[in-house]
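Sequence in, structure out. Go.
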Amino acid sequence: MTETQIRDVDDRPILRAAIEAKTDVLLTGDKDFLESGVKNPAIMTPAEFLNT
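Output:
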């Protein structure tokens, strides 16, 4: 995983924080995250999370 997968550079610190905190899931509606292809942490919308 590389943070460069996140298109919006302003979102990259959020990904870094999630990785540092060892989160399993990052909930967001932000397409830059959702379309990034990042696998760890899992990135999903709140609706997707509730349906899992």
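Check: The chain has a mean pLDDT of 93. The longest helix spans residues 12-20.
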